[in-house]
Amino acid sequence: MSTSFTLPGTQTTPTIVADWNEGLLQMSGDSYPENSFDFFTGTLDWVESFLKRERRPLRLELRLLYMNTSSVKVMMDIFDLLEDAHKLGQEVSVVWRFDPRNERVELLAEEFREDCTFPFHICAEV
Q: What is the mean pLDDT of residues 69-91?
């Protein structure tokens, strides 16, 4: 899968934009699909494929408002892929933007960051 794709967001799923040429994966919105693993399979496959086939940077940009437990698990899987690639010398990074009025998202992002050794920036959006 060496293509870019866009999944439009719904009330329960985030908008996902994967741009192969830019080495960029963006997710924004709420994430509480009925089956997170089914919903995110294509995204996980895309990240895995990019990291295996490319030796250039991959940046993950997040603007997630709410995540259910199974979405958090999938996000952990994505961060594990990034961590493995980082340990092999590949340049990966995360920028997680959040509304400063949403303290839960900031705390969640900080929890994720604790387990990552790659650049992981948490930014309040004004």
A: 97
Q: Domain 5-124: state its class.
A: alpha beta
User: Which two three-digit tokens encode residue 109?
Assistant: 């992002």
Identity of the residue numbered 46: W
pLDDT tens track for 114-126 = 999 999 999 999 7
Q: Which amino acid is at 80?
A: D
How many whole angstroms separate alpha carbon 64 and alpha carbon 120?
A: 15
Could you state, in order of their start, the residue ranges of all structural domains in the chain? 5-124
Contacts of 109 (CB under 8 A, 6+ apart): 62, 96, 98, 122
What is this structure's pTM?
A: 0.94
Report whether 82 contacts 43 (CB < 8 A). Answer: no
Here the tokens at position 67 are: 């995540």
Tell me, rounded to whole angstroms, the distance of Cα 77 from its chain centroid.
10
Model confidence at 23, pLDDT cuts 50, 70, 90, reads very high
